[in-house]
Amino acid sequence: MRSHLIIALAVLVAAPFLSVIPVTAETRLICDARTVHEIGAEDGFFPYTGIFEGELRGFSLDVVAAAFDAAGCKVRFKAMPYARCLRDVERGRLLGCFNTTNSDVNQQKFVFHEEPLFRGKILIYAHPERHQAFTEDDFLTGVFSVVRGYTYTDSFDLNAAIGKIAVESDLQTLALVARKRADFAVVYEKVAQFQIVRNKLRIDPAPVPVHSLTEFDLFISFSRAQFAQSKALARELDRGLKEIRANGTYAAIEISWDEWLEHGAASQESPPHWQPLSVRE
After folding, report:
1. What is the pLDDT of residues 196-231, one digit of tens each?
2. Angle of CA points 247, 252, 258, to nearest 5°
3. CATH among 3.20.20.370, 3.40.190.10, 3.40.50.1110, 3.30.750.24 for 120-215
4. Most buried in the list 46, 86, 171, 246, measured by CB within 10 Å?
């Protein structure tokens, strides 16, 4: 409840200073009152986006929903595994999918907007009994658990000399390290924070971070198979993201999720859930 109030209050305080997004011909064309765009949302990347207690929830889900709402665009989210989500976008079955890096490889496959949804830090985790420092040699001697289809870095992903075990979720990557079935897990910091807190029995003992691999901006990847529509919707998303950053909505969403991860994730407290002001009223 406290997290939901933070979102509402921050936006209400900023309300007198809100700028109005101009309604252009392009906006009416791509985001008219009848059109609902279906966007794929990965189901296993919580607390960014994923299934939590049977519902699609997450920080980046809230950001995307708020940004499209600010731009006057109606969207419907379809939860699915990340690899399938990207495959469906690449084949034109879906208009977009998130959360995706805008790596060189992905830029060749998809259309991207300019404003990132968020910036995430990828860490390498090891069993807590490991006491030696992580070195570059560990990339060639260790076995790394990763999520199938995820992009980490080109030097890591494309290096066949690095031993990798591909699994379906970060719960599994961390559990493999806890059970010493892999030497390292490559995981986004906030995802690891959530999984370790919520799955203490399955991730025991809790792996610890030993190396920072990289930081990435994350985006929606739009379909090149629907190029004109993708470019237009990407532009509207950029406008919406700029709007929610300017009016305080983005900061309110971020604060509420950080608070929940710190204090509510280990309890039965429900995670934040952004909704348009008209729905809250």
Report:
1. 998 999 999 999 999 999 999 999 999 999 999 999
2. 150
3. 3.40.190.10
4. 46
